[in-house]
Amino acid sequence: MSVTTETEPAPARPSSPIVRVHVPQRSFGSELRAIKIVWRRELIRFINDPLRVATSLVQPLLFLFVLGSGLQRLSSAGTHGVSLRTFIFPGILCITVMFIAMFSAASIVWDREFGFLREMMVAPVRRSSIVIGKCLGGATVASAQGVIVLALAGTVHVPYDPVLIIGVLGLQLLLAFTITAFGVMIAIRIKQMQSFMGVMQMIVMPMFFISGALFPASGLPGWLEVLNRIDPLTYAVDPMRRLVFSHLNVNPLARHALDPGITWWGWHVPAGIEALVIALLGLLMLGIAIWEFSRTE
Amino acid sequence: MSQGSMSTASTNGSAITVNGLAKSFGDVQAVRGVDFEVAVGEVFGFLGPNGAGKSTTINMLCTLLRPTAGSATVAGYDVVQERDDVRRHIGLVFQDPTLDSYLTGTQNLRMHAELYGVERELVAPRMEQVLTMVGLWERKDSPVGTYSGGMRRRLEIARGLMHSPRVLFLDEPTIGLDPQTRRSIWTYIRELKEREEITIFMTTHYMDEAEWCDRIAIMDHGDIVALDAPETLKERVGTDRVTIHTDDNETAIAALSDRFGLEARVSEGAVTFGVSSGEEFVPRLFAELGVPIRAVSVSRPTLDDVFMSYTGTTIRDAEEDMAVNRSRQMMRVMHGGGRR
Fold this sequence. Notes:
By secondary structure, chain A is mainly alpha-helical. Chain A has helices at 28-47, 50-75, 84-105, 107-113, 116-121, 127-150, 162-187, 193-210, 222-230, 234-245, 252-258, 271-295, and strands spanning 263-264, 267-268. The longest helix of chain A is centred in the N-terminal third of the chain and has 26 residues, at 50-75. Mean pLDDT of chain A is 84; it is low at 1-15. Chain B has helices at 6-9, 54-61, 83-88, 105-116, 120-133, 149-161, 179-196, 207-210, 230-237, 249-260, 278-288, 303-311, 315-339; strands spanning 14-25, 28-39, 43-47, 69-74, 77-78, 90-93, 167-171, 199-204, 215-220, 223-228, 240-246, 265-267, 270-275, 293-299.
């Protein structure tokens, strides 16, 4: 084992004097740096793991192409000639983001299990900076995955329209942030990966099925309608679907049946309000996550 | 050092001062009010069996645990009132690994530098310096997952030094490493101390490692039972350690007590006792003990003897006792649960 001594200096920097660095007092700027590096770490880990990118696409693609194509034969009357794959595409855009965002949030549990969380907890930065960095990182990673699915638009007869793409990206980012915040909020309380996976399955699948990602959210049985309106994912799927359908060339009958919009006691909720619901929920969960995280020793 | 905080840090030349520091977890008193000071530039060791309260003490000094009573300052800052200031001036190497094994060595260090707000233009040169110091410069771009246990430890030490701390805390820095790696880690630690001019506070339950420290505090059951330089502590024991292997330990102990007035005990299967001028005593021992002796060894006092003279047990026995107690408790819990 080579031991570097004073008389045997490192080749790269001969007899270099000690580089003394200084840790400044906490400031807004240093918190921003902390947020940025926590965010960057999520990105580095994502890019270094192509297998994760690939495997996390399997589920949405299964839904889109296998379920979509398979059920097509049963539902062609109900969709008024619109391909079922086209119909569920906005929903698939949402759940892709949702799965990945939850998975990103799980990294808090990994970090705790493998000790890295401690390294971040003892740093002279606010706990909120760590949580915000995590949420932004998860949102970025999830949106990046969403883009991959969005790139498949052509295969399900959805046009590559700039307005559509920008709108979808915006909604995906928003949803990804909210879901990551939600996941982080849960992950902070959970010490073991298995438990987190269990909880995730219990929450994600019902949210996905109830949201109307796979069916139009009108004329539902009363109990399901109530659940549908409570499900936050509903307010991401609906504006996404409106956006996609507004760029499709389908007859009004089909549009009315497949893209009925969300109503609150008979009132048509505008897409802007829906996006606002997602944003507010995200901020609320971020707040709770920060509060929880600041209390843990 | 050009910071305004320097005046507070070196008013009395001590890097750490501890007054009546105590911590309880429920009914359990983990640390029972300890007092000590660590001078600037010292390598100070906390020695004791697992569960003696070493880690609890170190966690309080690192602001990770709130003391139940007492106070402490590190680098001149109060560990309760000025947590952030303490954190800015200390480096930590934990007992359990806290590296991100998916990131490379460089990425782990950069993450640390950014979290601590190290001046941007100094991050790269400082990184090169600490990585070179621990001999990891060539492996800096490999993912930490590919490092050996010893390399990970060294990287953690490098990371702990990344922000030029005044005090470096090492909690069991060599636990779980093979003896050769342990020795090399120690060479690094001593060398770093010379180069970086920092104070090192560490815990260990390896006796031989405590020899590397300038001063050690022996901790047992949450209390400091002795505190001094290893050599001084050994001299204070005053007696050599004689260990004999016999077929009948009980009789040998009784005979030692009867004929020589020596108090002996069984440790790790052999009879052991302290006596002054051990070598001259051995002939008398063979002549007068009356119990056949199969083997004998005489040794100068070691830290083991120091530990024994203060606690009445060897560190290994103390740990075994603790393990036995734990498993007994577990049995009780299991049986209790079974009956219900």
